[in-house]
Amino acid sequence: MAKPVLAIHGGAGTVVRSLMTPALEAEYRSGLETALKSGWSILNAHGSALDAVQAAVIALEDFPLFNAGRGAVFTHDGKQQMDASIMDGSRLRAGSVAEVRNIKNPIKLARAVMDRTEHILLAGDGAMQFAAEQGFSLEPDEYFFTEHRWLQLQEALAAGRIQLDHSAPKPIGTVGAVACDSNGRLAAATSTGGMTNKKFGRIGDTPLIGAGTFANDVCAVSCTGHGEFFMLSATAYDVAARMAYKGISLAEAADAAIGHLTAIRGEGGLISVDRSGHVAMPFNCEGMYRGKIDESGLNLGIYRD
């Protein structure tokens, strides 16, 4: 029997301890802990890694401080456009959605694409049509409105920039989860609201299998950071490929993948797990909201040290 384990992230970037208030840090830790416990309740009952990563990401999407679901950032037009993906490594199946709006939990819609269609990625109006056909209800715009996100947009508009939310200890980047269950099955899931003030229908790495999310029978990976660089590097798949082709450990492969990201001037991190239950969570920036849980207990981290 394999060692069940779950790891999650809530984004990576500029997370400076001196700028983080104790109250805000406590909120972040509470959100991470809730997500870990949601996924672990499934793994601990001998449930599947796939169901566990979905449950963990749903909890993160529901938590307004992370840039996914309810806490998604605003686009240039003052809207939320969300992306998500999920992959079942044991069956090499995946589903993802891009540019969806008013969906409370985009990761559920990505799962429906995997389970109920012959496709992998649905985007925009087509994804929304599929959601309607599958009976997904839409939340009003007010559900997704958070004041700090709105202020971020105003700051970005005034400065004329697109931002990754990496300039202050605020909700950052992306959320994700990876897991290994008691049967050695691996799965990964990732969800995001993208970039503040994004234009032109920009889509990042999150819904792209192999770039921001990947799982097979070797490892499961979820990435967070500046998505364009993860796309250029196929970072999520890169970890699995290094393990398979070079015969190296998860930790070595994950570190090497982030090293390559650094070499092309990309910023971010990843979480990963292999079928033996080993976890690696490297990043090349000041911090990454992260945590893992297994039979030995729960551990959380935010800063580099």
Structural class: alpha+beta
Strand percentage lies at 15-25%
Q: How is the quaternary structure best described?
A: single chain
Question: Residue ranges: pLDDT <50 for 5 or more in a row?
Answer: 163-171
End-to-end separation: 33 Å
CA-based shape: globular
Sequence of secondary-structure elements: EHHEEHEHHHEEEEHHHEEEE
Q: How do the strands line up in the largest sheet?
A: 4-3-2-6-5-1-11-12
> The biggest beta sheet, please?
8 strands, mixed
Explain what you see.
This protein is an alpha+beta fold. The chain is about 35% helix and about 25% strand. It is built from 9 helices and 12 strands. The strands form 2 sheets. Strands 4-3-2-6-5-1-11-12 form an 8-stranded mixed beta sheet. The chain has a 4-stranded antiparallel beta sheet with strand order 7-8-9-10. The longest helix is centred in the N-terminal third of the chain and has 22 residues, at about 20-45. The two termini are about 35 Å apart. Residues about 165-170 have low confidence and may be disordered.
